[in-house]
Amino acid sequence: MTVIVIGAVGVTPAGAFQGPFSGSVAANSDGSFTIDPRDQAFALGAGYIPARRDCRTHVPLITPAAGAVGAIVASVALTNTSLTVAANPDTMRKCQMRVAPGTTAITAGVCTVTYAANDGTAAQVDALSLVTAASTLLTVPFTKGVLTVASAVVTGLVGGTSPKVQIDTTADLAVPVPPNNADATILKEVTDGSDSSANLGTLTAAGIWTPHTAPNATHTFAIGYSTVAP
Q1: pTM of the model
Q2: How open is the CA angle 131-134-138, to the nearest 5 degrees?
Q3: Integer angstrom CA distances of residue 184 from 83, 176, 207, 224
Q4: What pLDDT digit, counting tens, does each position of 154-205 carry?
């Protein structure tokens, strides 16, 4: 029997786990440590966190469309105001804010977006910085996968020459993950009803999934994956 722990960033030392019974244990590929259960109390005292490895599957709610610019908030003048949310993502996926500052730099300001996230947070709040150099397009992704967007509010804007803002969907989808997920690994991918595991996409700890084949409103997808979380 063994137990799984993960290190807390800034709390536990980097490198191998060192325990009285486990000895030196190198990290697994997912960042976890598989240790002797007699070392669990020692590990907790050293700042490690008990973790669980889980296997999950996900099938998007509908056939995902291609990513689209301005799908959530159409391009509008960037001012201190509440932006109009035109639509929500068709299925759980990655969204991003894009800002065109014009010929003058934006030196201050945030767009605060509130949305339902793929880790179960019903009102995830991201404060996305608007700061960007003159004539430099700024793209800022949301920190988690998005189900629905409740609001997007711009405050503290300084600078810009006739700046514009919009919120897009991207070609990346999202999968459900536990809160504070530490790692995620694709185990199987199915595209158009056929196993495409020989050419897997990518999956981040935040649950952002880039399928091997880009969504286009025709392809269907399914994924099997593992998570490691407290």
Answers
A1: 0.88
A2: 50
A3: 33, 11, 7, 10
A4: 999 999 999 999 999 999 999 999 999 989 999 999 999 999 989 999 999 9
CA 50 to CA 23: how far, in whole Å? 18
Q: What is the mean pLDDT of the chain?
A: 94
